[in-house]
Structure formats: structure tokens, C-alpha cells
Write a structure and sequence with these properties.
The protein is α/β, with parallel strands linked by helices. It has 11 helices and 20 strands. The strands form 5 sheets. The protein has an 8-stranded mixed beta sheet with strand order 13-12-11-16-17-20-19-18, sandwiched between helices. The longest helix is centred in the middle third of the chain and has 18 residues.
Length: about 475
């Protein structure tokens, strides 16, 4: 009764087609002050319809405006047998009076799913295109072939029904299919051709051109999961950092991050994100003190999150070597109320010192990240004295994202992923506990296609791999020489 009219031949959206008049009854309230009371007492009789308020303005027989409660279709104003005992009582005592009411529904009432269900062929309803990504003001569709004849209809309705969306695009190839920057080709279906978006994630703000960099809002949970593993004062190497969804939130946690991306546009957006999301320490109202604090804030952002625009394979090795020679200290300041802020109080309460070796590496390039693992062979060769049992420092944990098939328990996929890791490291790795050398924790990140799933393989770098002497003929690059710095 309340569904929109059907037109499966529609190819150009006609909003005026979607109109419907539904005959109902309404209970006019004599005393408007009693509306809440009668709304509760007549709960069984009321119309319960999503996005439709039960209280509506009506005019009585004398043309006077009043308030009324819409009643369910089964209640007839001229048939007392359809009334509940409570409704009968209120009518009998003249607290309410029943009258016919025509409920007018139009295009603005129905949602995206309602409208498209009335347009698309019934045979195409099983895999209805309801899933899409929203990146800032851009809706990103990935339509299957059977829906391409309706793509402009789908996009127009989607734009109408989502007030925050201004642009609707459809992906025309796979991410990274034609380039190494993980960008994709697309077509504008409707709206503004404006791909400069602003994203808010984990209390951080990112601005970038969505057509030139990689971003996936569905990875928010994975970003949060890994960042939660990082502790203040630790050092993290984000090898394929993109615009910074791991690096920037980690930096705000006072984690030292070395963030790299090969894409110049991603690097520029990463630079913007690092500057925009300042590590706030304290803000002093006095001019001289404020100037000093702003300077310190700028230095803290640069020190917590260092950014690079290099090839990932060489960056793994060069960053490890550079960190060994880097002396980084960040002063921490206490938050104070405005009444207590003076120039004399601008003194550090603690100093964080970056470790000389990384605690974590992130390789978030699932299509090929596993092939970067040979760069870890011999990563700390000749530096055994920096790690246990000689010190408290442990070898880093590697988090490498990858694609594989999907199953109910992921057991077979875990074995296959470990075999790939083993082949790249030339060291046997098996599914298991992340803290046991030679074992890999395989985490199910998300489904990406009917038979494809994204995983994160996390393991502590084995000593036999980290301290192995790198050989040129192995394909592994040796440590960069001093003159490169």
C-alpha cells in the first residue's frame, strides 16, 4: 500500500511519476494539550510508518485547523467495528473525532531503495546495487554489468537521497590496474566534477584529490586496529603510507612514524595532513609564549611524523639505517587552564626519545606488498648487539597486507599466505602466534569481491632473516652507503 508506483520501463528519472494518495482515517484531538497522552493510549491504532510523523494538521468540518493522529489503514471512520475499545471510548466522550484523511506521498518521501526497487527489473533485484563508498562528498560506485544500462538513474536517485553527496562516479577498472599508485579510472555519472574531498577519521582531517590518490573508507576499522597496537614513544615505519590513515593517528598518539609513499600526489596530501593535524600540547594566550608554543607544535608534528617520497623497497632499508643514526627528542607540555597560562609555565614535563630501531613496519599494498619482504633480509645484519638478549629491544613486527581467496574458517588461506611469506623471506613461516618466531598471525580484514578477501599477515621478524648477510646475487639490496645521506 505504501510502496511507490512501479515503472520498469523508466530510463530517465521522472520524479513526478512517483506520487500516491492513500485513504486513511485521522483522530482529531479536541484539546491539543492532550496529544501526547492520547498518542500513548491509542498506540495500537496509530499508523506506524517510517519517516512519517503520526501527528498531522487537519481542518474540521468548520474549516478550523486542528491536530490529528493518523490511524492505521484498518481503522475506518464510518465503521465502529474497526475501532479499538479505547478509541471507541474517546469518540463516545467527544475527546476525539474521526474523519477521513488522504495521505499524499511523493518522490521526496521514498528512499533510494524504494525508488530503485520500483524501476529495476524484478530479475535484477537479487543483487541490488545498494553498496557504495562515500569519500567526502563523492559517492563511489562499482556497478556490475547488468546495472550499467541504469547507471545514470541509479546515480541521480542516489544524489537526490543523500544530501551530503555532490558527486557520483562509477569505477571503470580495478584499483591499480594501470598504474602503481593504486588509483583508478572512473566516469562521472552525475553531480559536480569535483574530486577534492575532505575526510574525517579517528579525530584527524585529511584533504586530497580522490582521483589522484588511494583512499578506502571501508578500511577505517583496520586503520584503528593497527594504530591501537602502537604505543607512545615507539617507532613505526609506514612503507606505503598513502595520505596517512595509519601515520597521522599514530603521530597524534605520540608515536614516531616514518611515513613514505611513492605517489607524489599522495606525498603532497600526506604532507598536508601532517601539518593540518598538529600534535597539540598547550596553547598560551600571551604573545611571546604563544609564539614559542606554535614553534614547538610545528617541530613536534615534523618530529613525530617524518614523510618521504621514495620507492618502498629501498625505503625499508634506508629508513632502518637512517633511524640508527637519528637522535630525535620531543618535549611534552602539560595542559593548563587559561587562568594559569603564563610564559613562565611553558616548560616541558617530559621528553620522548625515539628508539634507534623500528618497533613496527606497515606494508599496506595488498596487491603486491608480500613481494617487498625480501628487503627485510639482512635488514639489521651487523647490528645484533642492538636487540635481545643484548638489550631490551626486540626485532620489529611486520604487518603486511595481501589478497587471497576466502573460506568459512580462512584456514587454507592462512597456510597459503604463510607459504608466500616463507618464499619471499627464504625462511619457513607457519600460522600461529605473532610472538613466536617463525609464526604468523593472519587477520581477516574484509571481503573485497565474491571470492576475494583482504588479509593482514603480522609476524615478528625472525633473527635468522634480520641478521642474515645480504648477498647481491640474491636480489636483496645491501645497506645504503654513507654517501647517500
Amino acid at each position: 500500500m505504501f510502496r511507490p508506483p512501479i515503472n520498469r520501463a523508466m530510463r530517465t528519472l521522472d520524479r513526478t511519476f512517483f506520487q500516491k494518495s492513500i485513504p486513511l482515517s485521522a483522530a482529531r484531538i479536541r484539546d491539543n494539550k492532550q496529544i501526547s497522552k492520547y498518542r500513548t493510549e491509542l498506540g495500537h491504532d496509530l499508523l506506524k510508518l517510517d519517516r512519517m510523523p503520526a501527528v498531522r494538521p487537519v481542518r474540521d468540518s468548520e474549516g478550523q485547523e486542528a491536530k490529528a493522529l493518523l490511524l492505521r489503514p484498518e481503522v475506518k471512520p464510518d465503521d465502529a467495528s474497526t475501532w479499538s475499545p479505547k478509541l471507541s471510548e474517546l469518540v463516545k466522550t467527544s475527546q476525539v473525532s474521526l474523519l477521513p484523511y488522504d495521505l499524499e506521498l511523493d518522490y521526496d518521501y521514498w528512499n533510494y531503495h524504494d525508488i530503485m526497487s520500483a524501476i529495476l527489473p524484478e530479475a535484477e533485484q537479487d543483487e541490488f546495487p545498494t553498496g557504495f563508498s562515500i569519500v567526502g562528498h563523492v559517492a563511489h560506485l562499482n556497478l556490475r554489468d547488468q546495472y550499467l544500462p541504469y547507471k545514470h538513474l541509479i546515480a541521480t536517485v542516489l544524489l537526490d537521497k543523500n544530501p551530503t553527496i555532490r558527486t557520483v562516479i562509477n569505477k571503470t577498472d580495478e584499483v591499480g590496474e594501470h598504474n602503481e599508485y593504486r588509483t583508478f579510472n572512473y566516469e562521472l555519472l552525475t553531480g559536480d566534477l569535483d574530486m577534492n574531498v575532505e575526510i574525517h577519521e579517528e579525530n584527524c582531517k585529511f584533504r586530497f584529490d580522490y582521483s589522484k590518490v588511494y583512499w578506502n573508507s571501508r578500511l577505517n576499522t583496520e586503520h584503528r586496529r593497527l594504530v591501537q597496537k602502537f604505543q607512545p614513544g615507539e617507532a613505526v615505519c609506514d612503507v606505503m603510507a598513502g595520505v596517512g590513515p595509519f601515520a597521522v593517528p599514530a603521530g597524534k598518539k605520540n608515536v614516531f612514524v616514518w611515513a613514505n609513499d611513492l605517489n607524489p600526489d599522495s606525498f603532497a596530501s600526506l604532507d598536508d595532513a601532517v601539518r593540518r593535524n598538529k600534535v597539540r600540547v598547550v596553547l598560551i594566550s600571551l604573545h611571546s609564549a604563544l609564539k614559542r608554543i606554535k614553534y614547538l607544535q610545528k617541530r613536534q608534528v615534523e618530529r613525530f611524523v617524518k614523510i618521504f617520497n621514495e620507492d618502498g623497497r629501498s625505503f625499508i632499508r634506508s629508513s632502518a639505517e637512517k633511524l640508527l643514526k637519528t637522535d630525535t627528542h620531543v618535549e611534552m607540555f602539560k595542559q593548563m587552564s587559561r587562568l594559569r597560562r603564563t610564559a613562565s609555565t611553558v616548560k616541558p614535563i617530559a621528553t620522548l626519545t625515539s628508539p634507534r630501531t623500528f618497533n613496527h613496519f606497515i606494508l599496506n599494498l595488498p596487491a603486491s606488498a608480500i613481494t617487498f619482504l625480501p628487503s627485510f633480509i639482512g635488514l639489521y645484519a651487523g647490528h645484533e648487539e642492538l636487540f635481545t638478549p643484548n638489550t631490551d629491544a626486540r626485532l620489529p613486527i611486520i604487518h603486511v597486507h595481501c589478497f587471497n581467496t576466502k573460506s568459512d574458517d580462512n584456514k587454507e588461506e592462512g597456510i597459503k599466505i604463510c607459504e608466500e611469506v616463507s618464499e619471499q623471506l627464504r625462511y619457513e613461516m607457519k600460522p600461529g602466534d605473532i610472538e613466536i618466531e617463525g609464526e604468523v598471525q593472519v587477520w581477516d580484514v574484509r571481503d573485497v569481491a565474491p571470492f576475494k578477501r583482504m588479509f593482514c599477515a603480522s609476524f615478528r621478524l625472525p633473527g635468522d632473516v634480520a641478521f642474515r648477510v645480504a648477498e647481491d646475487e640474491s636480489g636483496v639490496q645491501p645497506f645504503p652507503s654513507e654517501e647517500r645521506f
